[in-house]
Amino acid sequence: MPAPSIPPGAVIRVSRGSFEPSRFAEVEQMTRDTGNYLVPAIHQLDGLISYYAGASPSGSMVHVSLWRSDDDANQMSRLKEMIVDARRDAEAVGVSFGPIINYPIAWETGTGTETAEGAVIRVAVNNWDPARFDQAAEINARTSEYLIPAIQRLDGLIAFYAGISPTGALVNASLWQSTAHAQQLDSLKEMRVDARNEFSAVDATFNPITNYPIAWSI
After folding, report:
1. Deepest of 33, 70, 156, 214, by most Cβ within 10 A of its Cβ?
2. pLDDT tens per residue, range 26-61
3. Which domains does the chain have, with CATH numbers?
4. Could you give the 3-state DSSP secondary structure of residue 17?
């Protein structure tokens, strides 16, 4: 699907789970199976922009969704198909869940091209003391000035979203035509050196970056 246009006030919601990598085949199948009832249920919610779900052989699964507002995103916390049915099915194959965070979207870029078979969603998160939110937000805005043009030059980009939360977390969630395309960010100087150095000013810690083959999307 094309990269959507994001209105002011939109948020990106990220839910991640972990599992024993040896159970990847079970988790991948569960992710696809739960999509059969999650997709129609999520479609009924107001304010949805787009939704992507995937699992990685590294032992991680993710649901990344875009919403017009924080209130719209929070409908997921009351959706039976998600908090009861999908959680039950995920836990049955050994998935454990971390905190769910809604990130107000700070900036975005992309090509608007269609996702195709083999597309992946890449998720990178860093954390810092919530008391330093204003400083982190300023750094995020400043780094976007050189990150956006650098990212736009990469092949295979579909969409890229950066969101920052007062809880002390920043997420970069991006869509790529393939894992190989997503991995270009691993060697992008503006990302791996320049932006990373700037976030050292808030003593940011960087979590492992994961590329998730997309199992289903809305």
Report:
1. 214
2. 999 999 999 999 999 999 999 999 999 999 999 999
3. 11-217 (3.30.70.100)
4. strand
The β-bridge partners of 14 are 64, 101
Q: Dump pLDDT digits (tens) for 151-188.
A: 999 999 999 999 999 999 999 999 999 999 999 999 99
Q: Could you tell me the pTM of the whole model?
A: 0.93
Q: What 3 state SS string does the chain have?
A: CCCCCCCCCCEEEEEEEECCHHHHHHHHHHHHHHHHHHHHHHHCCCCEEEEEEEEECCCEEEEEEEECCHHHHHHHHHCHHHHHHHHHHHHCCCCEECCCEEEEEEEEEECCCCCCCCCEEEEEEEECCHHHHHHHHHHHHHHHHHHHHHHHCCCCEEEEEEEEECCCEEEEEEEECCHHHHHHHHHCHHHHHHHHHHHHHHCCEECCCEEEEEEEEC
For the chain, the residue count is 218
Cβ–Cβ under 8 Å, residues 109 and 151: yes
